[in-house]
């Protein structure tokens, strides 16, 4: 078990350095590395004396933005090297005394500017962190610790700057990354722990964890997530509790025994590899921590990683349960006239609103393409990716043929982006677009979509698609991963895409190519630009053909598709004849006197998307009342719902309508969802109709037990935003006489509910305990 040191700043300030010691730069602790190395050395000695294995350098503020506050950004390298040398001398001296190795962690702090909010450019801070890291390496640091990070884009710039420093100096050391989470449960800009892990682990870092901001109690849930999902070792360096402001300044309430207790539990429960302290911790804290964990073996971990992409705020797994990953296509200047015109006019707010519309429609990621002849693609990408970074909760797929446009997008997005795309059209040599884009993907930890196109053009048969796919897999996993396990070495972190054009055999070739590729490589994700299959048809026919083709591809193993999510409907919404005709077209089942394309055009002659919906309304109206109500739930159709419910109330009690009819509809929705025939956005629509129906019926319901049968506490676990089932349980239990306390979504397992004093039983709080479905 490796133990690091504790607080640095408070230890330095306790020795009362003079203004002269600070060179009149009061508060700039890093200056003391040059002016008072004896003070800095005494702090390291104090920690080594109590038995720690490693100390952090006094370089937390030796970076571009923090040093610029004192107008000494040109001294970053000097101060970093001086700080590392002091720690190196102390470590070597203690190691020589007893033969036990001591190590130096080169501290790389967050700085004072947030690039995601436009305070500073990505390139500026990345280069500043490179100078910081080069100085630390020159001074003898054994590892680099990117710590107390608050903005994922700043974190990535720190990691990439450190990587460049190692390449420039020829010195390679472990790279550790530690984040600061607020009491809100997120990083300063709102990033959840899943988003942070998804964004940072693919950068090839060697260890990940938490430090600062809070005490150990507030870190437990985040560590629980990391131990379940992180492939790499974990670290934790908490404050000595949450600070309490007093007349004498900040007071940290957690004593040495409390810190040792918490860290011992973390090592035992979460398998930490490195522990230490941060603000408010003293040599005494670390002495007790060393005694407690020195001989403790970290628990074995069996992480279950979730390959995915991330926005600044949340992670989105590539594999969606019982559904496909929907990549919204409406923010693509080549595919959406509305988006293109807004971009050309500089109506950036309209572009952002189109992104938000797709979120509401059920997209999981957004395809962002700004390519347009005559435009400055880099400037457009910087503008839109910068806005989407904070305005969209969904990860971004950067879609461009220009390498510099993709780079511009990557340098604006703090989460983990997907790059669309690479192929072998101009070969795979070092100057090829394939090599340049793949290098960007590796550097930024981005996922990669690879097209089945080679030097001879697009693959048109299943066999050729699989042949090119095999070449891509061998190349990307064999030649483009680094020894640290960085992207894109893992098969689960890049996608194969098979473009479709409308010729009789292309649909079949795509389906069979997907099926064979997934048989050979189950972990490779597959994706598809869906709408090509239906170009030329009218809007209503396109909805049918796209929906049926997507359903067939998903059955063959397709993982994701670039789609207009609201224009994909469950197969159950179409008639048998419509579905059969679409399948005949996809599988080229022509016969004498029968052309499925002509038949499809006849079926939808003069039809529009609106008329398609109107036709479904007519079908509903023709059904018996009970069946109609059930279909409204299944189809997510609100129009006319209240009139139908009022009619049903004339002959049956409200609770019977819910239990015998509406819940039967939801049962069908669950079965369709479980079998993959209905995607999550449509389940949400059905749940919304169910909610509306119950709200309309509730005033007519009689509760079965006036006194109440008891109290039920419900919540959805942190990491999951879906609350359909929970809310339905709430409705049914409430109307059957239970007092239901609904805590809402994203609740930690430590959440508690305190009942009102008049109803309070023997204990004062009701803990909520459950296991995450993940």
Structure explained in plain terms:
The protein is about 45% helix and about 15% strand. It is of the alpha/beta class. Among the domains are: about 1-210, TIM Barrel (Alpha-Beta Barrel); about 625-700, Methionine synthase domain (Methyltransferase, Methionine Synthase (B12-binding Domains), Chain A, domain 1); about 710-765, Cobalamin-binding domain (Rossmann fold, 3-Layer(aba) Sandwich). Helix 15 (about 405-410) packs parallel to helix 16. It is globular, with a radius of gyration of 30 Å. Mean pLDDT is about 90; it is low at about 485-490 and about 760-774. It catalyses: (6S)-5-methyl-5,6,7,8-tetrahydrofolate + L-homocysteine = (6S)-5,6,7,8-tetrahydrofolate + L-methionine.
Alpha-carbon Rg, integer: 30 Å
Low-confidence stretches: 483-492, 758-774
The count of β-strands is: 26
The CATH class of the domain at 2-210 is identified as Alpha Beta
- Across the major sheet, the strand order is 1-10-7-6-5-4-3-2
The total count of helices amounts to 27
Q: Which bin fits the share of residues in helices?
A: 40-55%
| Structural class by helix and strand composition | alpha/beta
Query: What's the architecture of the domain at 2-210, going by CATH?
Result: Alpha-Beta Barrel
Largest sheet: 8 strands, parallel
CATH superfamily of the domain at 2-210: Homocysteine-binding-like domain
Instruction: Indicate the CATH topology of the domain at 2-210.
Output: TIM Barrel
Enzyme class: transferase
Family: Belongs to the vitamin-B12 dependent methionine synthase family.
Domain B12-binding: 709-774
GO molecular function: cobalamin binding; metal ion binding; methionine synthase activity
């Amino acid at each position: 078990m490796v133990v690091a040191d504790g607080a640095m700043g408070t230890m330095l300030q306790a020795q009362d350095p003079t203004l002269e010691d600070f060179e009149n730069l009061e508060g700039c602790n890093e200056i003391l590395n040059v002016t008072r190395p004896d003070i800095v050395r005494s702090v390291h000695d104090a920690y080594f004396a109590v038995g720690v294995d490693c100390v952090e350098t006094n370089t937390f503020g030796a970076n571009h933005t923090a040093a610029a506050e004192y107008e000494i950004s040109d001294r970053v390298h000097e101060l970093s090297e001086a700080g590392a040398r002091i720690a190196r001398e102390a470590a070597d001296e203690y190691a020589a005394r007893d033969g036990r190795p001591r190590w130096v962690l080169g501290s790389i702090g967050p700085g004072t500017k947030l690039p995601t909010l436009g305070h500073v450019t990505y390139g500026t801070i990345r280069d500043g962190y490179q100078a910081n890291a080069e100085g630390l390496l020159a001074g003898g640091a054994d590892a680099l610790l990117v710590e107390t990070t608050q903005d994922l884009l700043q974190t990535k710039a720190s990691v990439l700057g450190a990587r460049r420093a190692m390449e420039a100096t020829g010195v390679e050391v472990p790279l550790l990354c530690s984040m600061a989470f607020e009491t809100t449960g997120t990083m300063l800009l709102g990033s959840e722990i899943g988003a942070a892990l998804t964004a940072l682990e693919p950068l090839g870092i060697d260890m990940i964890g938490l430090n600062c901001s809070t005490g150990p109690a507030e870190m437990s849930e985040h560590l629980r997530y990391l131990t379940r999902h992180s492939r790499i070792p974990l670290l934790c360096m908490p404050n000595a509790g949450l600070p309490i402001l007093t007349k004498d300044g900040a007071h940290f309430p957690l004593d040495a025994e409390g810190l040792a207790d918490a860290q011992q539990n973390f090592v035992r429960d979460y398998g930490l590899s490195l522990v230490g302290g941060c603000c408010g911790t003293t040599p005494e804290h670390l002495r007790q921590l060393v005694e407690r964990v020195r001989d403790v073996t970290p628990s074995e971990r069996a992480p279950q990683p979730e390959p995915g992409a991330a926005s600044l705020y949340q992670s989105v797994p590539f594999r969606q349960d019982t559904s496909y990953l929907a990549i919204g296509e409406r923010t693509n200047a080549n595919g959406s006239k509305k988006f293109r015109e807004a971009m050309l006019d500089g109506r950036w707010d309209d572009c952002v609103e189109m992104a938000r519309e797709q979120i509401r429609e059920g997209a999981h990621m957004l395809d962002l393409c700004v390519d347009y002849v005559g435009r400055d693609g880099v400037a457009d990408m910087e503008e839109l990716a910068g806005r989407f970074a904070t305005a969209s909760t969904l990860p971004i797929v950067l879609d461009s043929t220009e390498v510099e446009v993709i780079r511009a997008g990557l340098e604006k997005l703090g989460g983990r982006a997907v790059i669309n795309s690479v192929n072998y059209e101009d070969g795979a040599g070092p100057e090829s677009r394939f090599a340049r884009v793949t290098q960007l993907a590796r550097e930024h930890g981005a996922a990669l979509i690879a097209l089945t196109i080679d030097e001879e053009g697009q693959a048109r048969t299943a066999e050729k698609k699989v042949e090119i796919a095999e070449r891509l897999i061998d190349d990307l996993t064999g030649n483009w991963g680094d020894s640290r396990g960085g992207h894109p070495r893992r098969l689960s972190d890049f996608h194969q895409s098979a473009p479709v054009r409308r010729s009789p055999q292309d649909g079949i070739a795509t389906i069979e190519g997907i099926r064979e590729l997934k048989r050979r490589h189950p972990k490779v994700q597959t994706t598809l630009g869906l709408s090509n299959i239906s170009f030329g048809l009218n809007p209503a026919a396109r909805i049918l053909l796209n929906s049926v083709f997507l359903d067939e591809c998903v059955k063959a193993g397709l993982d994701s598709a670039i789609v207009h999510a609201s224009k994909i409907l469950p197969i159950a919404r179409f008639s048998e004849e419509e579905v059969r005709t679409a399948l005949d077209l996809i599988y080229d089942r022509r016969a004498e006197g029968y052309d499925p394309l002509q038949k499809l055009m006849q079926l939808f002659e003069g039809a529009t998307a609106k008329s398609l919906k109107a036709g479904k309304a007519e079908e509903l109206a023709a059904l018996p009342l009970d069946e109609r109500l059930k279909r409204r739930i299944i189809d997510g159709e609100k129009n006319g719902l209240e009139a139908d419910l009022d009619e049903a109330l004339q002959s049956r009690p409200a609770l019977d309508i819910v239990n015998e009819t509406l819940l039967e509809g939801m049962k069908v929705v669950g079965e369709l969802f479980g079998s993959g025939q209905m995607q999550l956005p449509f389940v949400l629509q059905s749940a919304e109709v169910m909610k509306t129906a119950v709200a309309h019926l509730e005033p007519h319901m009689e509760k079965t037990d006036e006194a109440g049968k008891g109290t039920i506490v419900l919540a959805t676990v942190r990491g999951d935003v879906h609350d359909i089932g929970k809310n339905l349980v709430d409705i049914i239990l409430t109307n059957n006489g239970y007092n239901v306390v609904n805590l809402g979504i994203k609740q930690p397992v430590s959440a508690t509910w305190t009942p009102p004093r008049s109803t309070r039983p023997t204990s004062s709080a009701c803990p909520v305990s459950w296991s995450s479905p993940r």
